[in-house]
Design a protein that fits this description.
- By secondary structure, the chain is an all-beta fold.
- A four-stranded antiparallel β-sheet has the order 1-2-5-6, with no helix packed on it. Strands 7-8-11-12 form a four-stranded antiparallel β-sheet, with no helix packed on it. The chain has a four-stranded antiparallel β-sheet with strand order 13-14-17-18, with no helix packed on it.
- A hairpin with a 4-residue loop joins strand 17 and strand 18.
- The longest helix has 4 residues.
- The radius of gyration is 16 Å and the shape is globular.
Length: 228
């Protein structure tokens, strides 16, 4: 797989601007799906890199991660905590065991289980391949395969909202209805709390809403106007 086949784990730093004004992004956080050289650094598939889009790339500490694991999903909380998911079952410091259907929280010292996929009814073998939060509350997830949860079927390109207190799932964004080809899989998401947009990356190339994109690109979707 080439350098362009990056598995983006979007955590954007957005400059303040009026709602629905021109997108202004000043940093992107991502993890490659292979070992790559980025900004003069060697970045492994279990690393998280922060790119200021001006030529500087730095690694973000996420604790001790087994080298056989690939980070599948990532989100940075406003308080500095990090949410992560992995492509394989991992044993982490503090006695935490996480499956690919789980999301863990890292507070800079300790890991804890943020989302227990098995408890929530996510089938074994399913991966969480994108995670964000909505205004610091409910989780925003995407899965690598079609799943039925809370009596609703979600495709791998859909964004799913998880209400933790009620342990319930709902459809946040039907990507097919938004024009995304069913063959594509969302592999990263960021909910823009400042602008209300949804930022996504896909596991392949295509065109949506007149916008051509590749798998290393990040797209912004205005759900209010239905535009990309």
């Amino acid at each position: 797989m080439t350098l362009v086949a990056l598995e983006f784990l979007i955590c954007l730093s957005l400059l303040p601007f009026p709602v629905w004004a021109a997108v202004s992004v000043n940093a992107v956080t991502y993890s490659p799906d292979i070992t790559v050289g980025l900004g003069g650094l060697t970045v492994e598939d279990e690393d998280i890199a922060d790119d200021d889009l001006a030529g500087t790339v730095v690694l973000i500490p996420i604790g001790s991660i087994p080298p056989e694991a690939d980070v599948n999903a990532y989100h940075l909380d406003p308080n500095g905590d990090e949410l992560l998911s992995f492509d394989t079952t991992v044993s982490l410091a503090g006695g935490v065991t996480a499956e690919p259907r789980d999301v863990v929280r890292f507070n800079g010292i300790f890991f804890s289980l943020e989302f227990n996929g098995g408890f929530a009814g996510v089938p074994s073998g399913t991966m969480v391949d994108a995670v964000s939060q909505i205004n610091g509350g409910d989780l925003l997830l995407s899965f690598d395969t079609t799943v039925t949860l809370s009596s609703t079927t979600f495709d791998d390109e859909d964004l799913v909202r998880y209400d933790d207190p009620n342990a319930s799932f709902s459809l946040f964004l039907d990507m097919s209805a938004a024009g995304v080809a069913e063959r594509l899989d969302v592999d990263a998401v960021h909910h823009g709390d400042l602008d209300g947009r949804v930022y996504v990356s896909f596991g392949g190339s295509g065109t949506v809403g007149g916008v051509d994109f590749d798998d290393e690109d990040v797209l912004a979707y205005d759900s209010g106007g239905g535009t990309w």
